[in-house]
Amino acid sequence: MDYSSPPPPMGGKSPEAVMEQMQTQLAQAYAEEFIETLRVKCFDKCITKPGSSLSGGESSCISRCVDRYMEATGIISRALFQQQR
């Protein structure tokens, strides 16, 4: 075995491959957190009497809640990206 050369980075993966894997994992974690936040916020706001099905009012409340949250997240994201430029 040749111990004179350094070991390959990250188990033989290139730095680009490691970065891509980290970005994928970060995106997945963000998506999971986003969905969990939506679930908690919109459920708490819209579901007053949990049951086996949603009422019409609960369904439309959840739809509006998700739409507003996604719109607000988009506005915030665009503002943050513009500040970084």
From TrEMBL:
Q: What is the official name of this protein in its record?
A: Mitochondrial import inner membrane translocase subunit
Query: Per its record, what are the GO molecular function terms?
Result: metal ion binding
**Per UniProt, what is the membrane topology?**
Peripheral membrane protein
User: Which keywords describe this protein according to UniProt?
Assistant: Chaperone, Disulfide bond, Membrane, Metal-binding, Mitochondrion, Mitochondrion inner membrane, Protein transport, Translocation, Transport, Zinc
Quaternary structure and interacting proteins, as annotated? Heterohexamer; composed of 3 copies of TIM8 and 3 copies of TIM13, named soluble 70 kDa complex. Associates with the TIM22 complex, whose core is composed of TIM22.
User: What's the family?
Assistant: Belongs to the small Tim family.
Q: What is known of its domains?
A: The twin CX3C motif contains 4 conserved Cys residues that form 2 disulfide bonds in the mitochondrial intermembrane space.
Q: Which InterPro entries match?
A: Tim10-like (IPR004217), Tim10-like_dom_sf (IPR035427)
Q: Name one GO cellular component term.
A: mitochondrial intermembrane space chaperone complex
Its predominant location is: mitochondrion
State its role: Mitochondrial intermembrane chaperone that participates in the import and insertion of some multi-pass transmembrane proteins into the mitochondrial inner membrane. Also required for the transfer of beta-barrel precursors from the TOM complex to the sorting and assembly machinery (SAM complex) of the outer membrane. Acts as a chaperone-like protein that protects the hydrophobic precursors from aggregation and guide them through the mitochondrial intermembrane space.
Q: Which spans are transmembrane here?
A: none
Biological process terms in GO annotation: protein insertion into mitochondrial inner membrane; protein transport
Indicate the segments forming the Tim10-like domain, all copies: 21-80
Q: Would you indicate the residue range of the signal peptide?
A: none
Superkingdom field: Eukaryota
What is the annotated localization of this protein?
Mitochondrion inner membrane; Mitochondrion intermembrane space
